[in-house]
Design a protein that fits this description.
The protein is an alpha/beta fold. The protein has 10 helices and 12 strands.
Length: about 270
């Protein structure tokens, strides 16, 4: 039974799509505001509109949702809908991308950060920080905006980091402005911001420091400076940091893996 499988991870900033057909996957990033505006209307969510835009045969498609906006979709979706727990989908995505069965997963998204402990492909513990934006990708985006720096440039900054003392994203913005007024180099401030994000998530990781593999997913895993800082710090604990090929789409990939397994359990092969 040949089908198209679409995993949709609705984040606070971006919606990530993993579209898998005939064992080939393509990845699409959509601004979440645009996702709601284009693919929902008074009749609810329109998978037909999405399939039409990306050249997919709707009648041979199964799809599922995870992420920040999945419950909003549940309220507006017409008909049945596959909704999946975000933590489990990120675990499944990490397994699909790396083949590992035992690991810690660090996911830093737009509005929160989380660490999941996985043993024998099962989630056995987790911790999250969703109360403060200072350890998230949105914090980095806002800092880059305040400093007038391009994100590609900002995420390369790791030399001579300035100490960022504020533990709150709001106060950190004020601190950045003060540092600029003191003629601190923007590159050093950016490095300090990147390092501060790592320091913010370390307490989450240290709860689970008995696993030697840490898979790093989410948009912040594309930040070279954050990956470098994280790798240097955790190497002292003999923890290896692994960034999968598609860290931003990890949750959507997890949805695809889950849907495929569901189809196989029902006696069908999705591909």
């Amino acid at each position: 039974m040949n089908m198209t499988v679409i995993g949709i991870d609705i984040g606070s900033r971006y919606t990530k799509l993993c579209i898998t057909e005939s064992c080939e996957s393509r990845y699409i990033l959509i601004d979440t505001y645009r996702f709601y505006r284009v693919y929902t209307d008074k009749n609810g969510f329109s998978i037909e509109n999405l399939c039409r835009e990306y050249g997919i045969n709707y009648s041979d498609t199964i799809f599922g949702f995870t992420g920040y906006g999945k419950h909003r979709i549940e309220k507006i979706l017409s008909g049945e809908c596959n909704l999946f727990n975000e933590l489990k989908m990120h675990m499944n995505g990490a397994i699909a991308q790396t083949g590992l069965k035992d690991f810690m997963l660090l996911d830093i998204g737009g509005q929160d950060s989380k660490v999941i402990l996985v043993e024998s492909e099962r989630m056995t513990d987790f911790d999250t920080n969703d109360r403060c934006a200072s350890g998230t990708g949105r914090f980095i985006e806002n800092a880059a905006r305040v400093m007038g720096m391009d994100m590609d440039e900002f995420t390369e900054c790791s030399d001579n980091p300035v100490e960022i003392s504020s533990k709150c994203a709001v106060f950190a913005e004020t601190e950045i402005i003060e540092l600029l007024a003191e003629n601190c180099l923007p590159e050093c401030i950016a490095a300090g911001i990147n390092l501060s994000v790592v320091k913010k998530v370390l307490p989450l990781i240290e709860r689970f420091n008995y696993n030697n593999n840490l898979i790093f997913s989410g948009g912040t895993a594309l930040n070279r400076a954050v990956v470098e800082y994280l790798g240097k710090i955790l190497s002292k604990k003999k923890i290896k940091v692994i960034v999968p090929k598609h860290p931003l789409f990890n949750g959507a990939i997890g949805v695809v893996r889950t849907l495929v397994e569901m189809e196989e359990i029902d006696g069908y092969s999705t591909f």
